[in-house]
Structure formats: structure tokens, C-alpha cells
């Protein structure tokens, strides 16, 4: 019996659904093949197989459709991406707050949830009227609230809010996203030896495409506000592809962030498999985040201009006075925080979606002790103590 994760069949399904065959530049089949082989070995249930395979086919469809848009409009590749502001930090460290706060400034642009879900519009879309992808994404949001309330509580994705661009890295099949939802030991270890440059090239291409679309809709913003915890381990590649960028590095007590990340991963695993080894999920997340933060610190140590290129912000101070912390970013990039921008930020703070209650979780749910986390993050805590030893320790 043929595996549902057979490479040729997955590629063919995407081409058939789009009636397109040109994948565009860049080799991705090898990475996709490694991922598919590990999915085929994973202990997935029928629902998990369907969800994960469908997601891969969707990624491939977006690649095909994007390439066709570029074939028809080669000027897309002439779009110049100005040096972005990139918010990084471990999950639950305030990255979403800072990104969405900055994105409220009309001088900036971001990728909204509805753009991330379907980056390439249908080929007959005339760029007039309300984009139909918004309604599709809002329907998806409503279904997620109804059918996966625990996941939505932990990681809500709103159609009309700024969203992280991690999807575009995942669409290049060089990403740590898959390991968050299934036990993929081979793909996980294989990734650690790979050059992620193709993923960041693909991200740049997708931002050019989105920026071109925004200009056709009359959007005036000039500078991207990006955000993803996934960038932490690849700050060197990020900076190489986006010279002149400014990084906002968010910090919080790892005891809190590790427990939150493990909770999200365990919820994703449970959507795809009948049994979940919570201790394994916890150990793998602790290892991944430790690896990621070690790389981030090493990369930053090599930057002679680190103090100019990075603004460090603690979670507690961001929550206590978000406008003040945003102002620090403006000072760092030499841009005035105008009254219009501040008013827009305050409106967003007043009107933003309110998080629903999250399910209870703690390190012990995932076989972890606070002392284990402290030991793994000894260097991180020593370096960023002023940001991590606030009210989060009680």
C-alpha cells in the first residue's frame, strides 16, 4: 500500500489542484522528501495524516500560484524590501504584543493573518473590492475557535491582526514547525545540519509578493514589522538577507516560556496522534529552545554593532508600559514616534482581541523541573538577568 506521504504523489496533487507545473527557482524537494519520510514513520492517526498532508499540499499550491503571479508580473521581483524591524524571542515573551503594537503605525506594514493563510490570491483576482481571502480566513478563525478551542486559547490566529511569517519558512520545508506537531526524530536532527539560506530566500520572495499586492491595494506603509521566535537561531541569515534590519529581542523567565511552548506542542501532537509522550515533548522543547538561544547569543556576540542593531526588552516592562518600550525601538532606528502613531497604538491596545483563558499547565506536566530549565539556560539567564528576574519568579 502506497504511503500518503509519497513525494511524487504529494507534488502531483498540488499541481493537479492548481493546474500549474512551474515550481519556480530554488530546490526544495530534498527537504520535503526528508520531512515526508519521517511523517510516514510517525505514529499519526488518520486525522493527523489528513491534516499534515493537506498542509503540505497547500504550501505547494501557494508556491505554484506565486510563481504564476510572478510569471505574469515579473515586476514583483523588483520590489525593494526596506530594512525591517524583526521581533524575536521565545514563545510567550511578548513578541506578539510588540509586533502588533508597532504594526499599528501606518508607516509600517505587516503580514496579516488572512495574508499568511493564503499568501497567493486566485489568479483571476482583480485587486478591486474586498479581498475574498479575508472572509475565508475569518471562517477559518471561527472554526478554529469552535473545533480546536484549546489550541486557539494557546495560540490564537486572527484574520485581521498582524501575524508571524514563520509559515513562509515552513513553506520552504526548512523549518522547526513540523517537529512541534509530531515526533520526527530524523527530520529534527537533519535540520540541525542544514543551511537555512533557501528558507530565508523564500521568505524574501514572499515579502516581495505581499508588498506588491499591498501597493496594488493602495497601502502606503514602507517598512515591514516581522516577528517569529523561529528567527532566534538564524539571526545571521536573517541579517544577511535583510541588511540594515533592526532586531527587537524580547525576554522572559525561561521557566514560563518553556512550559508554554511545551503546552502548545503537546496540543498539536494530540491533534495528530492518539497518544502523546508529554515528557518527550517537554524534553525536546527544552533542548530546541536551549539550542536556539545559544545560537542567538553566539551570533550576537559576533556583531560589533550589536548595541545598535538590537533592542532588548523584558516581558514585564513591555506589559507594564508598552508605549514606552515601543518608543525605545523608534529611538534606536532614528524614527520619530509621531502623535498619529502613538494614537494608533493606543487604539490598538484598547480594541485588540482579548485572550481567552488558557488551559492550566506547568513544567511538571511535561516531566521538567524548574532546576532543569535554570541549568539549561544558565548563560541566557546570566546575560539577560535584568529582563528575566521580574515578577515572573513571584
Automatic annotation (TrEMBL):
PANTHER family listed in its UniProt record: OMEGA-HYDROXY-BETA-DIHYDROMENAQUINONE-9 SULFOTRANSFERASE STF3 (PTHR36451:SF1), PAPS-DEPENDENT SULFOTRANSFERASE STF3 (PTHR36451)
Coiled coil start-end: none
Molecular function GO terms recorded: transferase activity
Protein name, entry field: Sulfotransferase
Organism for this UniProt entry: Mycobacterium asiaticum
Keyword Transferase: yes
Keywords assigned by UniProt, alphabetized: Transferase
UniProt-listed Gene3D superfamilies: P-loop containing nucleotide triphosphate hydrolases
Taxonomy of the source species: Bacteria, Bacillati, Actinomycetota, Actinomycetes, Mycobacteriales
